[in-house]
Amino acid sequence: AQSVTQPDIHITVSEGASLELRCNYSYGATPYLFWYVQSPGQGLQLLLKYFSGDTLVQGIKGFEAEFKRSQSSFNLRKPSVHWSDAAEYFCAVVLYSGGGADGLTFGKGTHLIIQP
Amino acid sequence: DTGVSQDPRHKITKRGQNVTFRCDPISEHNRLYWYRQTLGQGPEFLTYFQNEAQLEKSRLLSDRFSAERPKGSFSTLEIQRTEQGDSAMYLCASSLAGLLDGYTFGSGTRLTVV
Fold this sequence. Notes:
The complex is a heterodimer. By secondary structure, chain A is mainly β. Chain A contains no helices and twelve strands. Chain B is mainly beta. Chain B has strands at 5-7, 10-13, 19-24, 31-37, 44-50, 53-56, 65-68, 75-79, 88-95, 104-105, 109-113.
């Protein structure tokens, strides 16, 4: 079954510093991978997605992610964080059943704290 | 278009009561998804519709949960005989062509069962 692991429950980063959030997936074939962000009181917002092709994916708000098949990873990065980046970040993989692609399986999330 | 709308934002109910939540997707989106999110967890997929057809419902948590989308527009999620373990955020999302396009999520309905 498809699954996603986000090893870090909380991460604290100083404003202006670089950021990397880890995501490991479990799926036999090439996965379809996503990163979403959830701010308090807001719906989840899609940051970026990977299906195939270039393994470095650019997203919104200055985020990027790199797919590494050998490590089963899809880590999210940002070169310089802003206080407004404080939020919950979720990695997700497409969930397949006998009928095809259904929903997404999400990781438990990483809570990002920005220090001034 | 104002995005995906969910109503109510908050619902407090007594154990054993039935509750119904409503989701209005983006108007041109033909796919609609329901998720549940408990504290400290990522969203958990429940079910989805393409137009009025419910294409996957085996992941609904029990037979107390049901969902409808009678005219292919808005959808309702009903929980019968609520239990304290049903306390969670219930999220709705919609998509134009499928989940590979990425979803637009609503802000959710927070259910508290007392």
